[in-house]
Amino acid sequence: MPPERISGYNPADFPPFAVTVDVVVLTVTPEGLGTVLIRRGKAPYAGAYALPGGFVLPDEDLADAAARELREETGVRLRPAELHQIGAFGAPDRDPRMRVVSVAYMAAVPDLPTPRGGSDAASAELCTLDPGRPSRRYLNLAFDHHEILDAAVRHLARLVEETPEATRFCPRTFTLADLRHVYEAIWGTELDPANFRKRVLRSEGFVEPVGEKRLPSPGLGRLAETYRRGPARELVPPLRRPGTYFHE
């Protein structure tokens, strides 16, 4: 039933506002944790860095809108099911055009294709992050996108504490040094190799030995045991970040 036909309800009694979606794509590179940013091609904030995103169409589901905007503005194609909603951002003055509430999504993407700007994005690129610092200190992002980006980084940091998600950024078989690099990139801190090894191996079902050894990187270091992801869906005990209350 259309809203205007509901007794006692008049849509004109409520001020209009828009709904947008913003997408944080996170990946791990040799340089560290990276995300896809666009340069806005239109006002407001023309020329500024921003997260991929845009307005939700009237007949569109939120996750479908997020996947569409990501594809149009960066060329990165993900299914709506691969996008995880991490929160809503609705400060009254977050958008100078009108009252806008944004629903934020995050996707952890190994082997990220090279982003290419499209639609109303002048360009798109992969930028390296510093998870140890608030993004507002080193990135000048449009709207409140620094808050959304930091929320996504915190979400991924918690995810790799509780689940084997970090192994998605490793090759099919990997050394513990490979896995440690992923954690260091996401947490933004260096980890003690011996302590990291002990904590990984005592988490039941996290990784399984393959029975082969290889060099951690071509021509460097000593031969190291290789592993693959184990059957666990949760880490017991979890891997806590150094400096947290539960870290050992």
Tell me about this structure.
This protein has 2 domains: 153 residues, Nucleoside Triphosphate Pyrophosphohydrolase (Alpha-Beta Complex); 67 residues, Orthogonal Bundle (Arc Repressor Mutant, subunit A), CATH 1.10.10.10. The strands form 2 sheets. Strands 1, 2, 3, 4, 5, 6 and 7 form a 7-stranded mixed sheet that branches. With 248 residues, the protein is an alpha+beta fold.
> Average pLDDT across residues?
93
Helix % is 10-25%
- Work out the radius of gyration: 21 Å
**Helix/strand order, N-terminal first:** EEEEHEEEHHHEE
The fraction of residues in strands falls at: 25-35%
Return the structural class: alpha+beta
Task: List the topology elements.
Layout lengths: L17 E12 L2 E9 L8 E2 L2 E3 L6 H13 L9 E6 L10 E9 L12 E8 L16 H18 L13 H12 L5 H10 L4 E8 L9 E6 L19
Summarize this entry quickly.
The chain is of the alpha+beta class. It has 2 domains: 7-159, Nucleoside Triphosphate Pyrophosphohydrolase (Alpha-Beta Complex); 163-229, Winged helix-like DNA-binding domain superfamily/Winged helix DNA-binding domain (Arc Repressor Mutant, subunit A). Helix content is 21%, strand content 25%.
Features:
248 residues, Nucleoside Triphosphate Pyrophosphohydrolase, elongated, Arc Repressor Mutant, subunit A
